[in-house]
Amino acid sequence: MKRIEHREETWAFPFVEYSCEEKSGKLPLIIQLHGAGERGCGKEDLDKVDVHGFSKYLQDAEHNCIVIMPQCPPETFWAARVESIAAFIEQLIQEYDIDEDRVYLTGLSMGGYGTWYTAMARPDLFAAIAPVCGGGMAWNAGVLTMPIWVFHGAEDEVVSVNQSDEMVEKLKGLQADVTYTRLDGVRHGVWDHTYGKELMEWLLSKKRTGK
């Protein structure tokens, strides 16, 4: 897929875009939120958002979609920028002529938290989400009506696997559409086992069923 860097001040965040070479119809949109170590100002350091996640896979893959990787500013974190993330996504939907029923959110570590928190604040936006080694607010899990695929390493030394365990247990109790990949022997870098063809195709197979 084609990679483009965006630093225009008209956007809430600088971002890296991966887009298909030949676009057909209204496209699905995948937003990927990075971890704490990839924060920056979007100038010389925007390529940090490419360190983890779908980037390596997308260098050689082609999907009829757009993948957007925004960069969180220093001194803050995604869960504190939920309103800005939602506004950013709404702007992308308008300017990229996105299929509003096929918008997806994923993120790792700090971005995993951002995925949970943003989806809870705006569940109407997403057809599916995939939080990776993050955590949310289990007491508020009932607002999540979209399919969810959760990933966490059982030996995570940075974000306790209990964070995902708690969310998944609550969701299962609510009969939610949730899948949990809890990898034994894997530490914080569970994203190395996560972002590839299987997750990409799973996301793109989902459509929003209600607003």
Largest sheet geometry: 8 strands, mixed
Detail the poorly predicted runs: none
Strand content: 15-25%
Number of domains: 1
Terminal Cα separation, in Å? Answer: 30 Å
Q: Explain this structure to me?
A:
With 211 residues, the chain is an alpha/beta fold. The chain has a single domain, classed as 3-Layer(aba) Sandwich (Rossmann fold), CATH 3.40.50. It is built from five helices and eight strands. Strands 1-2-4-3-5-6-7-8 form an eight-stranded mixed β-sheet, sandwiched between helices. Helix 2 (82-95) crosses helix 3. The longest helix has 14 residues, at 82-95.
List the helices and strands and how they pair.
Layout: E1 2-6, E2 15-19, E3 27-33, H1 55-58, E4 66-70, H2 82-95, E5 98-108, H3 110-121, E6 128-132, E7 148-153, H4 162-173, E8 178-183, H5 197-204
Parallel strand pairs: 3-4, 3-5, 5-6, 6-7, 7-8
Antiparallel strand pairs: 1-2, 2-4
